[in-house]
Design goal:
GO molecular function: ferric-chelate reductase activity
Strand content: under 5%
GO biological process, one term: copper ion import
Number of helices: 6
Membrane topology: Multi-pass membrane protein
Distance between the termini: 33 Å
Helix content: 55-70%
Radius of gyration: 24 Å
Strand order of the largest sheet: 1-2
Shape: elongated
Largest sheet: 2 strands, antiparallel
Protein name: Ferric oxidoreductase domain-containing protein
Order of helices and strands: HEEHEEHHHH
InterPro entries: Fe3_Rdtase_TM_dom, Ferric/Cupric_Reductase
Number of strands: 4
């Protein structure tokens, strides 16, 4: 199970690396676009700016900036605020990874080479995933987090990830508890 748990950290690490690379790219680009010294006249000359590409415009227009459904951006409906499309895609990918790691089957052997009961196996995996989600949950919890500064993403984006990772950890803990309750009931029922 620990192999799967390490793979669970790859996705947030890739997201953070992409954010840091994006932030560094824009920092270097903005520094180059400000002013340079012309070698002949020693006067500041603005660098040539390039318009964004069509692919970049399409990505921002259709995936990055719009609301999840047609409507206003981040409009609360009751107690819930819908995230943007890109946040929804990233959160759904993280949940999908958790579900895949929960149900993927590897030939698990217990003590003495006996096959582990599938309910106990699901309970063990769910408990492990609940614990492995906690470091990512705490890493995204701070308001003045260093990751906000490193990636250039907004606090609200980190807050969306923080809330959904917490929901995932709680769901895995509930699955763990239910699976162990079923496993214990099966053991008690088979003895009587």
């Amino acid at each position: 199970m620990t192999i799967f748990s390490y793979y669970l950290y790859i996705f947030p690490a890739l997201l953070l690396a992409a954010g840091i690379i994006r932030s560094l790219y824009y920092s270097v680009r903005n520094a180059r676009m400000n002013y340079a010294i012309d070698s002949e006249s020693q006067d500041p000359v603005a660098w040539r700016t390039y318009p964004p590409s069509a692919l970049s415009n399409w990505f921002k227009r259709t995936i990055q900036y719009p609301a999840l459904f047609r409507g206003r951006h981040r409009t609360p409906i009751g107690w819930y605020t819908f995230p943007t499309r890109i946040e929804t895609i990233l959160v759904a990918t993280y949940w999908l990874l958790n579900i895949i790691f929960l149900v993927v089957s590897r030939n698990q052997k217990g003590l003495g080479g006996k096959n582990i009961d599938s309910v106990k196996l699901i309970g063990d995996r769910a408990g492990t995933l609940a614990l492995w989600n906690l470091p990512v949950f705490f890493l995204l919890a701070g308001r003045n987090d260093f990751l906000v500064w490193l990636t250039g993403w907004s606090y609200s984006m980190f807050h969306v990830f923080h809330k959904w990772i917490a929901r995932c950890a709680v769901l895995m803990a509930v699955v763990h508890s239910l699976a162990y309750a079923i496993y214990m009931y099966q053991g008690w029922y088979s003895q009587s």
